[in-house]
Sequence to fold (120 residues):
Amino acid sequence: TQNRMELEFYGPFDFRFPFYAYGHYKTGWFKPIYTTYRLWLHHGLQDSITINQKTYFALDELKKSIIITPNIPFNLTRPTSTYIELRALFQPDTNYFIDVVENPFVMDIFNQSLKSSSIN
Fold:
């Protein structure tokens, strides 16, 4: 006896940060209780990018695409290929918004460019 099985296949997700995965991000603002947060990379991040025939580290270009309001200095590191860490001196009792601006130069390993996302 043969049973028919149907499978649906989809291409890779867009290259964006899935802020929806964190319950406290759904409120429209982000009230941090730590100084370091991990942001998941669906497909990883290319190590370097080329803009106008110059090579840059992708993490440096990615940092230009992240906006924290109110504005505070922050650093990005990539401990593994699957996430980055965002470190900042977040102040107690302060609400923050994090926006990631679309950037055609920051690419994942499938050559998809970074799409915009935010927690607001």
Q: What stands out?
A: Confidence is low (pLDDT under 50) at residues 21-28. Helices lie at 58-64.
